[in-house]
Amino acid sequence: MNRPRPVYLNLLEFRFPATAITSLLHRISGALLFLALPLLIYGLECSLQGGEGFTRLQHLWKWLPVRLAVALMSWALLHHWLAGWRFLFIDVDMGVDIVRARLTARVVNAVSLVGLLVFVGISL
Amino acid sequence: MIRQLSGLRAWVIQRLTALYIGVVTPPLIWMLASAWQRGEQAWHALFAHDFVSIALLLLFLSILFHAWIGMRDVILDYAGQRPGLRFILVVALAGWLLVLGVWIARVMVRVMLL
What we know:
A: elongated
């Protein structure tokens, strides 16, 4: 069957089922965690340096943007962890059928969304 | 390195590191958070335990390998059409992860020697 070419794809016409959202967010959260790595190591280094570094971190914690960034990274960790376990179970043929795959994807998306709201709520 | 990690081996490393990270992270976060709340002395005392330092060092090592494969996949997906750009980004990624590895090793070794 010949379709008229070239074909122009309209992103707005794509549908994004729950499984696609889980997958996309898994990638985004992974990239965010990658960006957080140097900050995490810096924080660990400061905290172990002795008196001054530890209090410097406590002062940083009082700053709202820092707490919001930590909330965002906490969401990234939560989503990446949940979706990661889901993919590992799918690797061993558990929850592969579309009904369960959709259900687990919805659960992952919902839990990580609730987690985000909780993390932001705590940080405010 | 890139060739060796391109297929099944990359997939296996990604899964094995994922298992270790997935199992170890929740209890470690729990221990770190409760020690942090109890103050600086408790924080330092936690790192005095060898198994904490070693678990943390292994965790960071796993994360670096996990990030190498994951970010390499991302780069290959989005810059795959341009070999020059792809090469530069993958080399930069490897160098960056190596720097982070040396950095975390320095931090942890200093802790374990104290």
